[in-house]
Design goal:
Layout: H1 2-40, E1 84-89, H2 96-110, E2 114-119, H3 128-139, E3 143-145, H4 150-158, E4 161-165, H5 170-177, H6 181-184, E5 188-192, H7 202-205, E6 213-216, H8 219-233, E7 240-242, H9 249-255, H10 258-272, E8 279-284, H11 293-309, E9 317-324, H12 331-342, E10 349-353, H13 359-364, E11 367-370, H14 381-388, E12 393-396, H15 401-404, E13 411-414, H16 421-433, H17 435-452, H18 455-476
Parallel strand pairs: 1-2, 1-4, 2-3, 4-5, 5-6, 6-7, 8-9, 8-11, 9-10, 11-12, 12-13
Helix pairs in contact: 1-2, 1-9, 1-10, 1-14, 11-16
The chain binds 2-acetamido-2-deoxy-beta-D-glucopyranose (4 copies).
Length: 477
């Protein structure tokens, strides 16, 4: 007994640089996929100039597939064997939309589909990320074709299935296919990950009513699309399928390895100067009003006041904001620093630069705060990532979060906006003071992920959709 426990505590100390190396390279992929996704569904209805999902393009990490090919359980996508699938992406970058589509491309390659990839908005100068992603796909047997010209048209006409990714990809249809558009529409599956107002535009989605189906990441986003297309554009959605996302195998591997988790936890806490029994509440998203870091810090400050007023005995509380970019000099970044300085809580608030590597932070913290404002997240993949790490979630009662977090069971919900500041503060105090409750909620969140939000769940749901779409397009041809 004694020997064993010695061994297990001594081992990581000696080997942790190695373990960390392994973990970081291992976690790169899932982090790349998932990190980008949670930033993807930008819900603000503000200006429409921002390029879709471009926030996290700076990462240059090598990409590996998250999909294990040819492992034991038969894939629910088996029926796609030798089917020709054309995938059309508006861009090829490390942002959520393209990476999700790539994930699906590799799943389909794994069951023997022929997959052709088209990126229709290419940067003018050569782009390192795009180059490495293209090579990655070629390595995995995905063919990469130019967006325009005979080859593209031919493939579209021959394909069993065409998957358009994101709303803006609608522009490719006319530009590339011209008079052939009507021949292709009946076999198009349109995968939509957007919620922002400026995507509800006829120039993007005028062909939407005539495609075989739309696939959307959450019920609330699907409802929004139904409503907006009808009320604002006067068009009807095609058959719409809601497909929740799932956690990759790589993420689950780290989340379920207690030694790795402990090593990462110690490492990150040490670098933050935080004690082992301090309680860390983290918000992990690019800093922006839409993600609600400002309101989170206000709630955090209020929770410290409550604890002081009520003279509660709790370990030190810390707020961690992962996803900061102070060099961008945005007013919000400056405002957050100023707020922390004014309230004199510098020793309790930690800003962490934007990173593609979130696993160490998920291992190090105790509670995830999902404070997305307005309509909330379209889905919010960070939420299921955190639950995989057995973290309870304090989330806004909005968007996809409501479909993931069970209020009172796997986390606690608060209203979005200023009216949510005190409820979130109270929830922070609740989880800080009730250790048992916090741990139980984390465990239940993990159970829920295992039950609903794993990669195989997603593959199964996608398989049902693809079957439907194939059936319909056959009827047409
Ligand atoms: C969302 O989009 C708005 C307007 O395009 C932008 O100002 C904001 O920073 C974006 N938020 C995120 C989280 O990317
Ligand atoms: C559709 O959205 C409008 C506001 O944009 C709202 O007033 C209406 O209740 C919504 N309809 C449905 C059926 O949700
Ligand atoms: C975070 O980014 C800032 C610039 O925005 C830089 O000065 C700082 O060194 C970075 N911190 C780390 C730990 O990389
Ligand atoms: C969440 O549950 C709490 C009680 O546990 C309740 O006060 C609150 O209204 C609920 N919020 C939502 C959005 O259901």
């Amino acid at each position: 007994m004694v020997k064993q426990s010695n061994a297990s505590t001594a081992m990581p100390k000696n080997k942790w640089p190695l373990i960390l190396l392994v973990l970081f390279s291992l976690s790169t992929v899932m982090v790349v996929f998932l990190r980008a996704t949670s930033d993807y569904c930008n819900t603000s209805t503000g200006s429409s100039t921002e390029q879709l999902g471009s926030e996290d393009n700076q990462g240059k990490a090598p990409i590996h597939s998250t999909i294990q090919v040819g492992n034991s359980a038969p894939s629910p996508l088996e029926f796609m064997k030798s089917k020709l699938v054309l995938m059309v992406s508006h861009e090829l970058s490390l942002s959520g939309g393209p990476l999700l589509l790539m994930e699906l491309a590799f799943l389909l390659r794994g069951v023997g589909s022929d997959v052709v990839w088209i990126t229709y908005q290419k940067p003018s100068e050569s782009d390192e990320v795009m180059y490495s992603l293209e090579n990655k796909m070629l390595d995995r047997g995905v063919q990469v074709f130019p967006a325009y010209g005979e080859k593209a048209i031919d493939t579209a006409l021959k394909a069993d299935l065409v998957i358009l990714n994101t709303a803006v990809s609608g522009k490719w249809l006319d530009a590339a296919l011209k008079e052939k558009v009507p021949d292709v529409l009946p076999k198009v599956l349109w995968w939509i990950h957007e919620m922002r107002g400026h995507y509800f535009k006829v120039e993007y989605v005028k062909h939407l009513p005539f495609v075989a189906g739309a696939m959307i990441d959450s019920h609330v986003t699907a409802e929004l699309w139904k409503n907006r297309t009808r009320e604002r554009l006067g068009i009807k959605m095609p058959e719409t399928y809601v497909v929740h996302l799932g956690n990759s195998k790589e993420l689950m591997e780290v989340a379920e390895d207690s030694v790795s988790k402990r090593v990462l936890r110690e490492h990150v806490r040490e670098s933050l100067g935080v004690r082992n029994d301090d309680i860390l509440f983290a918000l992990i998203n690019s800093v922006s009003r839409g993600k609600g870091q400002d309101l989170f810090l206000r709630s955090f400050y209020e929770s410290l006041k409550l604890i002081q007023e009520k003279k509660l005995q709790v370990p030190a509380l810390h707020a961690v904001v992962v996803g900061s970019d102070f060099s961008a000099h945005t007013t919000l970044e400056i405002e957050l620093r100023k707020y922390v300085a004014d309230k004199k809580i510098q020793d309790r608030v930690h800003f962490i630069n934007k990173t593609l590597t979130v696993a160490p932070y998920l291992a190090a913290i105790d509670v995830l705060v999902q404070n997305s404002q307005g309509r909330g997240e379209c889905f919010g993949r960070i939420t299921i990532e955190a639950m995989a790490f057995r973290l309870p979630v304090l989330g806004t009662a909005a968007g996809g979060t409501m479909e993931i977090v069970v209020n009172g069971t796997t986390g606690l919900l608060h209203p979005e906006g200023k009216k949510g500041v005190m409820p979130l503060a109270n929830n922070i105090v609740k989880l800080a003071t009730h250790v048992e409750r916090r741990l139980t909620m984390g465990k239940r969140g993990y159970d829920r992920v295992k039950e609903m939000f794993m990669e195989h769940h997603m593959a199964h749901r996608i398989a049902l959709v693809l079957k439907e779409v194939l059936r319909k397009s056959k009827r047409h041809s």
